[in-house]
Amino acid sequence: MTSRLSLRSLFAAAIVLMSISVPATVFATISVLDDSGNAVTLAAPAQRIVSLSPHATELLFAAGAGQQVVGVSEYSDFPAAAKQLPSVGGSGHLDIERIVSLKPDLIVAWGSGNNRRQLERLRKLGLTVFESEPRSFEAIADSLKRIGTLAGRDEGRLQAQQFRQHVQTLQQQYAGRAPVTVFYQIWSTPLMTLNDAHIVSQAIRLCGGLNVFGQLKPLVPTISREAVLTANPDMIIVSDETGKGLERWRSFKRMQAVTSGNLLTVDGVMMNRAGPRLIEATRALCEQIDQARQRTEKHTGQVFKKLNETNN
């Protein structure tokens, strides 16, 4: 009798357990490809994440994983909550011991900005590393989705959709506009710019601009003042919000950008950082380039008018 009751009890317990709905994702691993092409696999959504670059920090927070971030690299200044988190050193020189002490189950690294040997050391210590290197608007959107997936946050997918929609809106708004040649200065001494492979150049193209040094091979070329004068761009943009970088050009009165009044400074943090705020910076840039386009057309019209009056 006792054995029969025991068997019945076990059978009933088994039925109860089988009736409980268990989400399939509980036992499923999470796997995505990072920007270096490596598969990054987690047994469960990451709960302790360390960011090794400012752009990665912005991506994590935008993807809804801010509460899971336990450490960030220097200059991770957005959003405000990121400034309250422990620092793990500069992008190029990381504090490995500090990173390990934070016990991360995911590290979001900067593919070209972090020290390669240090990244390999982190991997050898058994830590999971996702390399982030977005070089286009689409890559930023896809990064939001993949990082959200690793953190178990659907917000990453939603933010990716919104980001793509904003890009599409700007593309439609500025398609077919007359081209404006642009010199984009990121450093004054030595004089440095960006080529067309950089995401900033994509932003310039989206607005109907043409990077005059876009065809140079280095991602961040060093150029001469004479090269800029020879290129004679319609517009000069300096990614220095203090505006000091423009002073060197104001004295060249015959430059098209100077005569048309097309000298602009932009927030280099928002513009040069491959994070979700780039779309805001691009929207403002497109408005500025459109104004420069109008000023250039007006100035060119005035020049032709004077030439005709002189010839007549």
Structure, explained:
The longest helix is centred in the C-terminal third of the chain and has 34 residues, at about 280-310. Strand 3 (about 50), helix 2 (about 55-60) and strand 4 form a beta-alpha-beta unit. It is elongated, with a radius of gyration of 26 Å. Helices cover about 45% and strands about 10% of the residues. Mean pLDDT is about 90; it is low at about 1-5 and about 15-25. It has two domains: about 25-165, Rossmann fold (3-Layer(aba) Sandwich), CATH 3.40.50.1980; about 175-310, Rossmann fold. It has a four-stranded parallel β-sheet, with helices on both faces. It has a four-stranded parallel β-sheet with strand order 8-7-9-10. Helix 5 (about 135-150) runs antiparallel to helix 6 (about 155-175). With about 300 residues, the chain is α/β, with parallel strands linked by helices. About 35% of the residues are buried. It has helices at about 1-20, 55-60, 95-100, 115-125, 135-150, 155-175, 200-205, 225-230, 245-250, 255-260, 270, 280-310, and strands at about 30-35, 40, 50, 70, 105-110, 130, 180-185, 210, 235-240, 265. The chain has twelve helices and ten strands.
Beginning-to-end CA distance, first to last residue: 122 Å
What is the count of distinct domains?
A: 2
Task: Give the strand order of the largest sheet, numbering strands 1, 2, ... along the chain.
Answer: 4-3-5-6
Under CATH, the topology of the largest domain can be stated as Rossmann fold
Percent helix, as a range, is 40-55%
Number of helices: 12
Structural class: alpha/beta
Order of helices and strands: HEEEHEHEHEHHEHEHEHHEHH
**Global shape:** elongated
Average pLDDT metric: 89
Computed over alpha carbons, the radius of gyration is 26 Å
Fourth CATH level, the homologous superfamily of the largest domain: Nitrogenase molybdenum iron protein domain
